[in-house]
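ENTRY TYPE: paired fold submission
RECORD: A
CONTENT: sequence, then structure tokens
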Amino acid sequence: MLVIRRRPGEAFFVGEDVEIRIVELNAHRVVLGIVAPQEVPILRGEIRQAAEQNQLAAQTTPRALASS
């Protein structure tokens, strides 16, 4: 894991096309701005985890129950 310290208004790049900018910083949260090509998916961690769990559940559901 790479750990980078940035101040509000500063940015860093991931590859050539993705810019992450620190928009706001306070004691309880960090607000990030992300500039990336439209074909690059950007998902919050909890949304991605829920999608993966739903996909796994759909794959393990017996066919008889799925078609009822």
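RECORD: B
CONTENT: sequence, then structure tokens
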Amino acid sequence: MSRAKWKGPYVSDKLFLTVKKIKSRPSHYEKEIFTDSRNSTILPNFVGYIFNVHNGKQFIKVKISENMIGKKLGDFSPTRKKFSFKKKKLK
């Protein structure tokens, strides 16, 4: 089920305040933001920032662009690796 429209998009309070605090600095686009809030929605004022999103094991860099607005941060940091069998050498 999707979130009700009257509630608006979900964004973690800590994440929103961090972006707001960084935005007040003169060189605000150079700062990377570390977060583990994968369920937060990307807002238009996040465009241009670099988020390090935690996937359960490591942080993955995600540079926010205009095409990502309205999607979740977790959509851009996969939690599973692609599995492939190793080939044996033929003798």
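NOTES ON RECORD B: The helical segments are 13-23. The chain has a mean pLDDT of 90.
STATUS: closed
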